[in-house]
Amino acid sequence: MLTFLKLFKYYWKHLLNYKYVFRKRKILSSKIWGDQIFSDAINTSFNDYLSHSEKSNSRLKSLLIYDIIDCYSMYGITPKEYFVLNFRNKGKEERASFLSIKNKDEMCLVKPNAWNVFQQLENKSFFYSITKKYFSRELISINSIDDQCIFSEFYKKHNSFIIKSNFSHSGKGIKLIRDASNENVTCSGLFNKLFSDNNKNGFIVEELIEQAKWMKEWNSSSVNTIRIPSIRNSKGYHILNPFLRFGQPNCDIDNAGAGGAVILIDKDSGTLISNAHRQAGDVIKVKPETGELIKGLIVPKWKELLILTQEIHKNLPEDYYYVGFDFALTEDKWVLIEGNWGAFLSWQQIMDKGCKEEFQTLMEI
């Protein structure tokens, strides 16, 4: 009888192990939030965030994979979020306080008509059509080959412009034309090339923004922006954790996911309250092109931006409960770039603090 029990325990232990390995393989081959294969997301994050010695440590990587799977299951944290938010060094209670992109989207999706709102915000052409007056620049929408005449008229007036794929995000699907005459292609040829690259979803073409000197001094090669997350509930309009973004030298975009840097802003005064941080962990303490200390600088025309944000949100349909607005500053005023269901990854990374409870509370009122 004793021998039988020993054999049973031995084989049961290995059966459970095989079951876990099978489950793990199944999970790793599935898609996670954001439509990426789990194993691909892990490998990309290992490549981006592990040191050279850690990459060659198979035992460490195996332990990390188990923990990453658990964190996704329990907190909705993707592999990238796991490293950016330093989950390796956080306990259960602290981990539970962070707002993942999955959590944020799920909280938004329970609202009435939420899926339609999400699709509308994802569609740059549609969002422009309902907020046109706040862009203060010419923008055209290209959705079929028959729109070539619209592009031709725009091309006659603007030698430089930016092209964005309709459903692109995180700085992807963007092409900047600084001088159309140097493209070595006719207007018709350029249109055909752009349409071929974007024919599935269409694209928009925008007149370039001439940003204010104060904003350009962060990085002259990109249009640097302010993200204002705005929540509408039964008690009014609320701004949650705004921040400034600027790009890397010689880079056209300011997105954090493309190497851009993020600075936190006090929502009441417009004062910069943190150094600039990149997702890779780099910290910048001075304004790149002036050498001024970042902390304590004040965003120009901040009160005007708060008023503008509320005005735009008020003029959107009532079921737009949460919108992350992006703005650029010209010498005269703030202009709208786009709206989306923006995440809070950079804010939580810099503060080393979660904002899940605060976001959830505002969304439920």
From TrEMBL:
The keyword Ligase applies. Pfam families: ATPgrasp_ST (PF14397). Residues 113-354 form the Alpha-L-glutamate ligase-related protein ATP-grasp domain. Keywords: Ligase. One of its GO terms (molecular function) is ligase activity. The keyword Ligase applies. This is Alpha-L-glutamate ligase homolog. It comes from Phocoenobacter uteri.
